[in-house]
Amino acid sequence: MKLLYTLNSPYARKVRIVALEKHIELDLQEVVLADPDCIVKNHNPLGKVPVLILADGDSVYDSRVIVEYLDNHAPGTHLIPTDSSSKIRVRRWEALADGVCDAAVSAMLEQRKPAERQLQANIDKQLEKVTRGLEVLNLDITKKKWCVNETFSLADIALGCTLGYLDLRFKHLNWQDNYPNLAKHYSLLVKRPSFKATMPVVS
Ligand SMILES: N[C@@H](CCC(=O)N[C@@H](CS)C(=O)NCC(=O)O)C(=O)O
After folding, report:
1. Dihedral angle over CA of 89, 168, 199, 62, nearest 10
2. pLDDT of 143-175, one tens digit each?
3. Residues of the chain with pLDDT under 70
């Protein structure tokens, strides 16, 4: 199976961590989305990474579908619980963590526009979503080692990828100081080999 990814995509990182945790070997193909010949759009009409290309050429996207595919593909401990109520809780954590990431990516894209085309109201709106999301995540992780059922799961992976992305692009938000429960959780996650192997790099 081949994974089309970019090095600092938090969504692709989530998939890479799931694969590492499940001991699934992926053929990693880094792509440049800005390249007009980028092959991603041939496999995902939305032109977004990550995309998983299966042996028969079929493709799987987006990251939420890929992680479910991988979790069911390999035996061993499930990162997405099989009982419905725990599964919904894990996927809600993922939805909120990914949503914070979506808002942070939108704010960053707006900030990268030439100054005369930037809309400060847009940046503020997106950063408010980031702040509201982090407040809830910080509260929800109080006194817990892992997000759901005291077991490491996709919820922890999604949260860690979002926090890693904020560390990379929004260090000035000081999330580590403002959200101490999240900082504690993150310090635990980054000790895992799967997180170490996929650390975002400043570009
Ligand atoms: N919901 C998607 C989000 C994927 C996404 O937004 N990926 C970004 C990279 S971080 C991308 O490919 N952006 C290119 C574009 O939007 O054209 C997922 O979970 O996979």
Report:
1. 50
2. 999 999 999 999 999 999 999 999 999 999 999
3. none
CATH class of 2-73: alpha beta
pLDDT at 183: 97
Q: Which of 2, 18, 23, 31 is nearest to 64 (CA)?
A: 18
Rounded to the nearest angstrom, the distance between the alpha carbon of 47 and the centre of ligand 1 is 8
Pairing of the two strands 2-5 and 27-30:
parallel
Instruction: Report the nearest atom of ligand 1 relative to the CA of 48.
Output: 12
Looking from the CA of residue 49, the nearest atom of ligand 1 is 12
By C-alpha distance, which of 55, 31, 52 is closest to 43? 52
195 C-beta closer than 6 A to ligand 1: no
CB 179: neighbour CB atoms within 10 A? 22
What is this structure's pTM? 0.97
Of 1.20.1050.10, 3.30.230.10, 3.40.50.2000, 3.40.50.11310, the CATH number of 84-192 is 1.20.1050.10
